[in-house]
Every structure is written in C-alpha cells, then in structure tokens.
C-alpha cells in the first residue's frame, strides 16, 4: 500500500509487551472472498484507506520466512508482490496498492507508521524506538497512548520489503 510515496504499517505492543510490533495491514480471509478482496477490506477496516490495486511488476514466492524469495510468474490481472506459504498450506498474499485518502487508525489498530523506503530499511537494520522515529520526522498516527520509548520490532512482511528495496532499489521508483 502506498500513500504519497509512504508505506503504511500498523504499530502496537508486541505480544511480550516489551517492544512495538510494526505489522503489515491485513487480516483473515472471509468465506467466498478472493485474496485481493480480503486485502482491500482489511486495509479499509484497519486504516480507513480506499485502495486501488496496482499490478506488481514482479511476484515473489516464499515457502517460509526463512526461505529465499523466488520470482514467479502469475497470470493474474492484478498480481501480488508476495505469496508466502503458511503452516496450514494457505497463502499470505501481499499486494501493491495506492490510496489517495489519508489513513486513520481504526478502533482495532493502536496506530500507523507511514514509512519512507529508507525508514523501512533503517527499522530493519537498527534498534530504534518510536520516540526516535518520530524525532527523525517519521510519521506516526496514533489512535491511543503507546509507550514511545519501546523499540520498534519489524515483523516479517516489513523485513521482506526492506530486503526487496535493498536488492532492487529501482523496483518502486515509478510507483513512488
């Protein structure tokens, strides 16, 4: 998802409570929904963003987060950026999309970070607190009070995106 060249990600307390997870917008598929319909619905529910899907110039497949991303060819009108296999043999799907409206965290979301590509790479390389991120002019839209002194913990989708941006710096140039 892109909004004015920024990637929105959820931020909130990680399960252990000693870090803030930085997580892809998304969720579970409803019956009879396609993966793309799920992505559109979930982004709207979590961030009030109307998204226009973008055909990814390349699709990657990962058997697990520990495996290398393999480029694959799909015959889809709107191909996703990532297909990742889950333990139950379902797929997690990550689409590219654009939104013209500003995001707003829903009641189920603590807050959102609107990340520049270089901030994605920074969060995945260094331990940085939410306070440090904000002091460096990072955009955080917080719905409720969060301990800003906690370290931001990138979840797998963010790490995948950081690696992709690092390995293919021109991949998103036309989209940003």
From TrEMBL:
Superkingdom of origin organism = Bacteria
List the InterPro entries: NUDIX_hydrolase-like_dom_sf (IPR015797)
> Which species?
Bacillus oleivorans
Protein name, per record: Uncharacterized protein
């Amino acid at each position: 998802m892109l909004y004015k060249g920024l990637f929105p990600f959820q931020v909130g307390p990680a399960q252990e409570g000693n870090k803030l997870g930085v997580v892809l917008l998304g969720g579970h598929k409803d019956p009879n929904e396609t993966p793309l319909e799920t992505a559109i619905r979930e982004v709207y529910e979590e961030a009030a963003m109307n998204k226009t899907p973008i055909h990814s110039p390349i699709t990657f497949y990962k058997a697990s987060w520990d495996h290398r991303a393999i480029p694959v060819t799909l015959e889809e009108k709107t191909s996703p950026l990532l297909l990742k296999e889950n333990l139950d043999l379902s797929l997690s799907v990550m689409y590219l999309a654009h939104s013209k409206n500003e995001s707003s965290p829903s009641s189920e979301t603590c807050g959102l970070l609107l990340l520049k590509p270089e901030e994605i790479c920074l969060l995945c390389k260094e331990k940085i607190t939410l306070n440090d991120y904000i002091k460096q002019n990072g955009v955080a839209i917080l719905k409720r009070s969060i301990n800003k002194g906690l370290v931001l913990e990138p979840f797998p989708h963010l790490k995948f995106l950081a690696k992709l941006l690092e390995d293919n710096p021109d991949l998103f140039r036309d989209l940003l």
